[in-house]
Amino acid sequence: MRGIFYGIGVGPGDPELLTVKAIRAIEKVDVLIAPKTEKKDGSVALSIAKPYLKDDVEIVYQVFPMVKGFAENSTEAWEQNKKEILELLEAGKNVAFLTLGDPMFYSTYIYVYRLLEHEDIEIQTIPGIPAFAAIGSLMGYPIVEGDDVLSIVPATAPPEKVEKAVQAADNVVLMKVYKNFDEVTDMLARNDMAKQAVLVSRAGLPNEKIIRDIEEHKGEKLNYLSTILTRKN
Amino acid sequence: MRGIFYGIGVGPGDPELLTVKAIRAIEKVDVLIAPKTEKKDGSVALSIAKPYLKDDVEIVYQVFPMVKGFAENSTEAWEQNKKEILELLEAGKNVAFLTLGDPMFYSTYIYVYRLLEHEDIEIQTIPGIPAFAAIGSLMGYPIVEGDDVLSIVPATAPPEKVEKAVQAADNVVLMKVYKNFDEVTDMLARNDMAKQAVLVSRAGLPNEKIIRDIEEHKGEKLNYLSTILTRKN
To answer: Which residue spans traverse the membrane (chains A, B) (predicted)?
Structure first.
């Protein structure tokens, strides 16, 4: 029998924030596809799932070159990845791709999914807790309420785009705040959204860091997995 | 020993989408606070959590009058609710408030949390899977990717505000699409975002409904728990 391909969200860090559905899937996995990239997301996801994995699970590392307009320009490396995954499924193995947070939310899994969605295989995608939700609960910080609008913005987007999205919303989640933490802090201050901001790095993971007064922390070096929650004054 | 107050996200519908942390908390609950409102969210959350609840769990119904500027104008009804909750905790009972989806994301729990956060009690808030995440996985629909901006917008907000937020983003989640489904569909069509939209009502619950061609379904009566995912063309 052909195996099933799983895309599994493991949440932001705490292994107790996996869902029952994610755990039941992880327990069935024979082969994990792990991205071989400089960003360590994949290995973080693996460490979160570890308590639930089969002892003899096989790990296959694949290179996922990120190119703009990926869907139209699928490269040879991606085609090679697809071939390898299909062969594993054909051999009756259950194959999974783990995602930190949620698999359909700013994840490499989206590209893996697109690569496979038109093949004649069974794909099960299992949602996960996004980091911003875990941070809201951890900090007692309402993410958004009533009829308010929430913008979710990667701080790695062009600065004008980030600022425009921030101004259009009542509440804001800024993700991947690391390279340009100082610029983002200045932008929030300019829009009267710095004082009430909270920043959490690596929520639920080793070396978790909480910053409540971001303006006092300018110049600090932050981890890639850093998220700011804020709102209009 | 004084009890603990829990705010627990139970996810959008499927009891397998509860986290391990949520289940462990639900198993400890002696008293559930349930909102007595015309919207049936509370009782839906209760039905999702049911498999994990103590058989003899006590349910206390409270009225939560929603008023603008709640924090400044806490009414007598809310003060009465607070008194009742504090007495239960004082009697050593673990008390919980269940939330459909995530407790810090468009939830009545936010107001309950504010009512209690400055009291001398232990509060544990446990995140849940938001409906939009479950819908992305269910439909194989990427919610947002790369450096794109996501707007999350309640369709119940003023129409100009909704349209402005939609125009400011690459990807959009529209929540509570029911009363004004036709107007929302026209607005999305006007902004070239109707064709690629998907709508899911009651994801993972009885009477789940999936609509892929929203323009063909105008005039239909939708459940309160209806969400649209869409993106720029």
So the answer is: none
| pLDDT tens profile A119-131 | 999 999 999 999 9
Judged by CB atoms within 8 Å, which residues 23-52 of A form the interface with B?
23-24
B102: contact with A, CB 8 A cutoff: yes
**Is B143–A14 a contact, with Cβ atoms under 8 angstroms apart?**
no
Beta strand ranges found along A137-225 (DSSP E): 150-154, 171-175, 198-201, 209-211
CATH no., domain A5-126: 3.40.1010.10
Mapping DSSP onto H, E and C, the string for B189-230 reads HHCCCCCCCEEEECCCCCCCEEECCHHHHCCCCCCCCEEEEE
Per-residue pLDDT for B86 more than 90?
A: yes
Handedness of CA A13, A16, A20, A24 (dihedral sign): positive
Of B142, B147, B164, which is closest to A104 when you measure between CB atoms?
Answer: B142
CATH number of A131-231: 3.30.950.10
Average per-residue pLDDT in chain A?
93
Distance, in Å, from the CA atom of B168 to the CA atom of A167, rounded to the nearest integer, reads: 9
Structure tokens at A146: 């009533």
Phi, psi of B110 (to 5 degrees): -55, -40
Q: Give B154's DSSP letter.
A: E
Residue ranges per domain, chain B? 5-126, 131-231
CA distance A25 to A33: 14
CB contact under 8 Å between A127 and B137, yes or no, is: yes
Q: What is the pLDDT of residues A6-61, one digit of tens each?
A: 999 999 999 999 999 999 999 999 999 988 765 556 689 999 999 999 999 999 99
pLDDT at B133 over 90: yes
Q: What angle do CA B50, B17, B52 make, to 5 degrees?
A: 25
Report CA-CA distances (Å) from A106 to A153, A175, B46: 10, 10, 31
Decide if B133 and A105 are in contact by the 8 Å CB cutoff. yes
